[in-house]
Specification:
mainly alpha, Ammonium transporter fold, two-stranded antiparallel ribbon, 19 helices, 1% strand
Length: 468
């Protein structure tokens, strides 16, 4: 008997189609997608809010956390008003979709193009990706960017940079049919890493004392934020197939295997070179593993995920701990949390390794109707070297396009904003930190946070006037 004969069987009442759940709606996929989208959202709020607020100097805790919270809210409004359709809507050029609202039930209750669930699932899931990208970028700018400039930067970068990468690679752009970017190694991590570094150049460095001495104010909270980020990646990579099928669990397992391997390698290098295991270093190793596996999580084997973790834990460690300290460019540009290394370098590494190690069987399961190629390793093994070389060509072209677009567009955005407000805070505000910017501080060390009112000066007449 064929599966098409299911209509001859009486379905349980909870599974039977009705007006609120039409026959194309897979309730299991729908439920998983809503869960995955929420997990991705939790990576930003509270994940990066806690991570940023704890990983910086005490006087910047409030400002850093609030930059993340503001970006999450601002991106959502922009996303449903115009940015979603610019990323996934009607094509108006090889790199851009037509701006439009994503608010009407006529659109949100339609079936998604990929999977069997309402379009509202897709809109919210992709919003969570977009918000995370902007917040990751902000990690390069902590401790000195004018908050008013940040308020303008978020919608502008989302509109003119993020949507371009998303449409080009995931929408209907010129790279969509060839490049392998399973869950955002290019669209999210390479773009945020390059854009963050570029913006850091235009904003300028932190106060000299802050740049030389910038200890985290709460390492335990930092680990809590990192935990949200790590476990939230289950939804990040597990939700990208838009189905609770075979690829999702493979992607989830690969994600955590790669991340654990990368963390262990990073900590090992710290212990060998510096004779101490750095907690901050462990978090950096964790992040590089998450980033590196993202472009290939659902299309590489688990042994390949371990290899990718070894690569991200070692090569990115060398990039951040050796090259960064020796190269004049990295010394002149103040990238506060090293986002260029943890996201741009690790994203490039993941994109190249995905093109090298993608298993054609998994690629076919993930993209059944596409023209995606196969990893160079498997193409050589199967005697189809041309296919593998073609795939590597697409991977490298994607790196070049995303890098160039973000350097140019982020520079234009920063120059444009600087015509209206200063990109960098005043020197006096840089000395004070949160109290100068928001009138609030992160921790009340005494008096339950009560402020002592400054006594008013008594305007006494001068002595020489009294003697007249």
């Amino acid at each position: 008997m064929n599966f098409s004969d299911y209509e001859y069987f009486a379905l349980p009442l909870a599974l039977a189609p009705d007006e609120a759940s039409p026959d194309w709606n897979n309730k299991a996929d729908n439920g998983w997608q809503l869960t995955a989208a929420t997990m991705v959202g939790l990576q930003s709020v509270p994940g990066l809010v806690i991570l940023y607020g704890s990983m910086v100097k005490k006087k910047w805790a409030v400002n850093s956390a609030f930059m993340a919270l503001y970006a999450f809210a601002a991106v959502l409004i922009c996303w449903v008003l115009w940015a979603h359709h610019m990323s996934f809507g009607t094509r108006i050029s090889p790199i851009m979709g037509k701006p439009n609202f994503a608010l009407s039930p006529n659109y949100l209750l339609l079936k998604t193009k990929i999977g069997f669930m309402p379009m509202a699932d897709f809109v919210f899931f992709q919003f969570a990706f977009a918000a995370l990208s902007v917040i990751l970028l902000g990690g390069s700018l902590l401790g000195r960017m004018n908050f008013y400039a940040w308020m303008l930067f978020v919608p502008l970068w989302l509109t003119f940079s993020y949507t371009i990468g998303a449409f080009t690679i995931w929408g209907d752009g010129f790279l969509e049919k060839g490049i392998i970017d399973y869950a955002g190694g290019y669209v999210i991590h390479l773009s945020s890493g390059v854009a963050g570094f570029t913006a850091a150049y235009w904003v300028g460095p932190r106060h000299s004392h802050d740049r030389q001495h910038f200890p985290p104010n709460n390492i335990i909270h930092m680990l809590g934020g990192a935990g949200f980020l790590w476990l939230g990646w289950t939804g990040f990579n597990g939700g990208s197939p838009f189905a609770a099928g075979l690829i999702a669990p493979i992607a989830i397992l690969n994600t955590h295997v790669c991340t654990a391997t990368s963390l262990m390698i990073w900590v090992s290098f710290d212990m060998i070179v510096y004779k101490k295991s750095s907690v901050i270093g462990a978090v950096q190793g964790m992040i590089t593993g998450l980033v590196c596996i993202t472009p290939g999580a659902g299309v590489v084997d688990s042994w390949a995920a371990i290899l990718m973790g070894m690569s991200s834990g070692s090569l990115t460690w060398y990039s951040m701990m050796v090259v960064h300290r020796r190269a004049a460019l990295f010394q002149s540009v103040d990238d506060t949390l090293g986002v260029f290394h943890t996201h741009a370098v690790a994203g490039v590494l993941g994109g190249i390794l995905s093109g090298l190690l993608a298993n054609p069987r998994l690629v076919k399961l993930m993209y059944p109707a596409s023209t995606y190629g196969t990893g160079l390793f498997y193409s050589f093994k199967d005697g189809k070297l041309d296919d593998g070389l073609k795939q590597m060509g697409y991977q490298l072209l994607g790196i070049a396009f995303v890098t160039a677009w973000n350097v140019v567009m982020t520079s234009f955005i920063c120059i444009f904003i600087s015509r209206f407000v200063n990109l960098r805070m005043d020197e006096e505000d840089l000395l004070k930190g949160d109290d100068a910017v928001h009138g609030e501080e992160a921790y009340a060390l005494w008096g339950d946070g009560e402020r002592i009112l400054k006594p008013k000066r008594l305007h006494r007449p001068r002595i020489h006037k009294l003697l007249r």
